[in-house]
Amino acid sequence: MNRLRAFVRERDWEQFHTPKNLAMALAAEAGELLEVFQWLTEAEAAAVMESGQKAAAVREEVADVFLYLLRLADVLGVDLAEAASAKLERNAVKYPVALSKGSARKYTELGAPGQVEARD
Amino acid sequence: MNRLRAFVRERDWEQFHTPKNLAMALAAEAGELLEVFQWLTEAEAAAVMESGQKAAAVREEVADVFLYLLRLADVLGVDLAEAASAKLERNAVKYPVALSKGSARKYTELGAPGQVEARD
Amino acid sequence: MNRLRAFVRERDWEQFHTPKNLAMALAAEAGELLEVFQWLTEAEAAAVMESGQKAAAVREEVADVFLYLLRLADVLGVDLAEAASAKLERNAVKYPVALSKGSARKYTELGAPGQVEARD
Amino acid sequence: MNRLRAFVRERDWEQFHTPKNLAMALAAEAGELLEVFQWLTEAEAAAVMESGQKAAAVREEVADVFLYLLRLADVLGVDLAEAASAKLERNAVKYPVALSKGSARKYTELGAPGQVEARD
Question: Which of A9, C46, C117, D40 has the fewest beta carbons under 10 Å from its own?
Fold first, then answer.
C-alpha cells in the first residue's frame, strides 16, 4: 500500500482517486476479469492457468482489481483485513454449517424448501 | 485466506467456487459497491465514512470484494501480493512520471495532444 | 434482434451464448462503459459527446451493452419492452411522487429522516 | 423512453441522472443480473425461466439494465438502435464468417493458432 501510495503521489493522481472514481475503476477491472472467463467452458476455466497467455491475463486483471481495492480502502480509511475478518464472522452466523452445507441458497432462503438460490 | 478456506470447506462450498463463478461473484460485489456511490455527489462520496449507515455498507461491500478476490486467487494459485507488485512495476514503465504527472490519459495516449483520456 | 440472431447463427456462436456467459459479457461491457467515464469530472462527463473520440467510444460501448442485452433476452425468452414497462409500473408504486420528489433515497428509506440514500 | 422520461421528470430526478451516475447504475444492475446466475450450473442456468421465482428475478434485473441503458442513451443523445446496427456492421467485418465460425477467439486472434480466446 505504501508503494502504491507513492506511485500515485509521484504522478499527482490523488486528484483522480476519489472514492466514486475508484469504485468505478474497481468495477471496470472486475469486468475485464469477467472478459477472460466469459466464453470458456467450466473445464477450460478450470485449466486457465495452464495456458501462458491466459494465465498472464488472469494475473494482470486480478492485480488490477487488488490495486484499486487497496487504493479505495486507503482513501476511505478502511482496514481491509479487519473488514474481511468481521464479514467472515457475520457470515458464519448467517450461514450455519448445519443448514448451509452443500447448498448455494442465500441466507434468506436457508431452511426453506426449494431450489438452489443465489447467495449474496 | 486460511480462515476463508476453512469456512468454505466446512460448508462444502468448494463445488460452487469455480474460477468462473468466483469471477462473477467478485464482479457482482463490485456492483454493490457502485450502488453505494452511484447517486452521491463527489462531496457526499468524500464524506461517506462519516455516516454510520453508509460507512457500514462501504465496509461490508469492500470486504465482500476482498473475500471473493482472495478465494479466486486461492483457487487459481495466484499470489496476490506478487501479482500486484509485478503490475505496479509494469505500470511504472507505462506511466513515466515526467509524462503522466497530473494527467489521467491512458498510456497509449501519453505524449499525444488532446483531452484527458481514460486510463486502464 | 433478427439481424443479431442471424449474425450469431452464421458464425455458429449459439454454443457460446448461454445465459450465464451472456450475463458475464453484458457485465463486462457495462464495465467498459464505466472505463470511459471513470476519470472524468462531472463537467467532462456531461460534455463527453462533444469529443469525437470519446463520443465514438461511448456509442461503441452503449451498443455492446444493448447487443448483449438483446441476445440475453432472446435466449431467455424475455420481452424487453414488456419487462421494462412492468418494472416502471412497480417503480411508480415504490416511489410515489409525493415522497420521492427530489430525493435519491432508496424506497426502503422513503419517509425516513436522514441522508440521501442509494436507490436500487 | 417517453414514459421513462416522464417518470424521472415527475420525481425531479434529472439532477441525479448524470452520464457518470447512470453508467454506474447500469453496471450495478448488470452486477445484480450476475448474482442471479453466479452459483448456477450451466444446466440450472439454462432452465432459469422455468422457476417462477428466478424467472421473476431475471425479468426484473433485465428490465433494470434496459431502463438505465435507455436513460443513459437519452441523456447522451445516443440512438440505441442506430448504434447497435452500426456496431453489428463493424463486427461483421471484424469477424468474417469463414474465420470465426464456431470459434470464440477475439478478432485480434483470428487466424492465429492456439486456444479459444475471449471475444470483446
Answer: A9
